[in-house]
Amino acid sequence: GSDDGSGKGLMAKARAFVRTKALALGQSALLAYLLIDIAVYAALGLVVRSAYRHNYGQEPWHDPKAFLLMLAATWAGNNATRPLRLAGAAALSPGLEWAMARLHEQWGLRRAFASIAILAIWGLLALTVVALVVLATL
Length: 138
What we know:
The protein has helices at 10-25, 27-56, 64-80, 82-107, 111-136. By secondary structure, the protein is mostly helical. Helix 1 packs across helix 2 (27-56). The protein is elongated, with a radius of gyration of 18 Å. Residues 1-5 have low confidence and may be disordered.
């Protein structure tokens, strides 16, 4: 695929999208935006699940249509918070810039690998919290 995302593959389009966002926001702001995105999706997913359980007395994944509706509601809620997430990314960006510099100084990690490590740790933390909440309320 080409660098502009005109390649037919999904990965080429995804790479082009990330490059465009990174250029528009800056690497640390993009990282901050993704970290906030993970947290918002996790929180909204739990809120939507809780509302469904309260109203229908069962888990949404027992009904495929309800599960798809839950995913759509989570996505819509996430889109409604875009201005707040952008503002949060701008506020967190300097701190992430510092953290990535420290990871480079201390462990010699390149910025890209430091970003991936931060995202992976944050994603695993969010997934763990979601799993614990779901398991505690089954």
